[in-house]
Design goal:
heterodimer; A: mainly beta; six-stranded mixed beta sheet; four-stranded antiparallel beta sheet; 12 strands; B: mainly beta; seven-stranded mixed beta sheet; 11 strands
């Protein structure tokens, strides 16, 4: 079965600084990968997804993520963080050829200092 | 374009009472999921439906929990009797048929449940 690890429970950055949130997955083949964001009091919203092809994918709100097969990673990045980016971020993996039901990581809470 | 709609947004009730959470998925989505989110356990999949049929309920914590989907536009999650440890945020999500697994889930805004 696939699994997802988000090593950082909390990340604190200053507004305007760059951001990288880590996601590592465990799965034998190439998975389908997703990043979601959850703002306070709201449900999860899709930021971006990777299925195949270009390993650098662009998402909404200026986010991007890079799939690195050799490292089993799918880290989320943003060059300049805005205060409104403060939220919980979830990485999810779907095993190709399985039930296609995603497995979610525990999430990383992003705190943005002014 | 209406998203997934959950009601109520907040529910506070006393231990032992029956609780019913409601969800209206996005029209045309074949799959519906119920999740529970807590600080201790994160996001847990409770049950999911395909074309109104429950496919996997292995995440349902115990017999006090039940879920139904009488038609394509409505689902309920019921807890009877409720206990304080059931306090959590419950999310409903829907998606088109996963196909090759490339369909993301669309989440409602959740029901924040507090059992006193």
């Amino acid at each position: 079965a696939q699994s997802v690890t988000q090593p950082d429970i909390h990340i604190t950055v200053s507004e305007g600084a760059s951001l990288e949130l880590r996601c590592n997955y465990s799965y034998g083949a190439t998975p389908y990968l997703f990043w979601y964001v959850q703002s306070p009091g709201q449900g999860l919203q899709l930021l971006l997804k990777y299925f195949s092809g270009d390993t650098l994918v662009q998402g909404i709100k200026g986010f991007e993520a890079e799939f690195k097969r050799s490292q089993s990673s799918f880290n989320l990045r943003k060059p300049s963080v805005h205060w409104s980016d403060a939220a919980e971020y979830f990485c999810a993996v779907v095993a190709s050829g399985g039930s296609y039901i995603p497995t979610f990581g525990r999430g990383t809470s992003l705190i943005v200092h002014p | 374009d209406a998203g997934v709609i959950q009601s109520p947004r907040h529910e506070v009730t006393e231990m032992g009472q029956e609780v019913t959470l409601r969800c209206k998925p996005i029209s045309g989505h074949d799959y519906l999921f119920w999740y529970r989110q807590t600080m201790m356990r994160g996001l847990e999949l409770l049950i999911y439906f395909n074309n109104n049929v429950p496919i996997d309920d292995s995440g349902m914590p115990e017999d006090r929990f039940s879920a139904k989907m009488p038609n394509a536009s409505f689902s309920t999650l019921k807890i009877q009797p409720s206990e304080p440890r059931d306090s959590a945020v419950y999310f409903c999500a829907s998606s088109p048929s996963p196909g090759q697994g490339n369909q993301p889930q669309h989440f409602g805004d959740g029901t924040r449940l507090s059992i006193l």
